[in-house]
Amino acid sequence: MTRARWASAVVVGLVVLFGWTGAAWAGSGVASSVPTDGAVLASAPSAVELVFTGRPVAAASHVAVRDAAGRSLAVGEPRPSGDRSLVQTVRSAERGDVSVTYHVVLADGGEKIGTLWFSVGTGVRPARSSDQGGEAAAPLHEHGIDPLSAVLLLVNAVVVFVAVAMLVLRPRRGVEPPPAAAQQPEMSRR
């Protein structure tokens, strides 16, 4: 195989790999919620259910439910309900807007992060603004970049790149027949 073919194969492989993982990452999302985003409720629900198009991993997911004052209404951790939904039990909310902020890890490796709102006892759709507690819920769960892991990943990527480059770009050696053994006179033993 020529160097050009090897390089083409590597490029195609990388495109397929990153294209496939990108499709898996974007393939699952929030299908619905109970209560729905923007719902106007007469009384507070006892739980919030988030339904996904992919299978959520409850142990790696976080759901924050907050009232208009930013107080947490969540009771315990989210639990799975069926194959594609998470349920977060909540305390009864006072009259006002409620925000549900979620960071859900899906079994296919994707993550879904978002916020939805509903109102309780107001008779009007919730206002989606920072003064209604929406931003207060958002920083509840954030990830920073671990510098050590980032450096190790970079070093690994460089090592793999160099190894592949060495394999692809190394000079090709033809198969040479072994040299004929030269006849050497036997030495007499004394």
Order of helices and strands: HEEEEEEEEHH
Q: Could you give the count of β-strands?
A: 8
* Percent of sequence in beta strands: 25-35%
Report the helical percentage.
25-40%
Tally the structural domains.
Answer: 2
Could you say which structural class the secondary elements and strand pairing correspond to? alpha+beta
Rg calculated over all Cα atoms: 30 Å
CA(first)-CA(last) distance = 57 Å
What CATH calls the topology of the largest domain is Immunoglobulin-like
The major pleated sheet works out as:
4 strands, antiparallel
Strand order of the largest sheet: 1-3-6-5
Can you tell me the CATH class of the largest domain?
Mainly Beta
**Proper CATH architecture of the largest domain:** Sandwich
Give the averaged pLDDT, no decimals: 79
Low-confidence stretches: 21-28, 129-140
Number of helices: 3
- Overall geometry comes to rod-shaped
